Amino acid sequence: xxVLSRWKRTRRERVRSALxxxxxxxxxxxxxxxxxxxxxxxxxxxxxxxxxxxxxxxLTDAAEVWRREAVEKMVxxxxxxxxxxxxxxxxxxxxxQEVAADYRVHSDAFEARHVFGVLSASAPRFPDAMNHLLExxx
Length: 138
Fold this sequence. Notes:
Blueprint: H1 2-19, H2 27-48, H3 62-87, H4 94-116
Helix pairs in contact: 1-3, 2-3, 3-4
């Protein structure tokens, strides 16, 4: 059991290092980093996602671009967000930790769909509460 725990811990540390995830010193610092990452993903979603201005136009390559951007940029950014929130869990309130868990479930389902082709009507959408995480002082 200890070997498995050590392996998991080592793997998580490698992922955090590869993603350049760091420990934040304050809620404000965490919020700034989180906002930057969420804005990046949201910009991609607005530009190429299924509700974008060009998504219904069969003469554009919007669907192809969306799939590529989802896999190449959004999935790694989602992983970064999940690891950032996990590493800085001590800065989150219990309610914010619940939102972070909801985001992780969404992130896993998003990756399953776009990387592995797992389609699920029950996959959770982006939790809107993520946009309000860390807004108040704890």
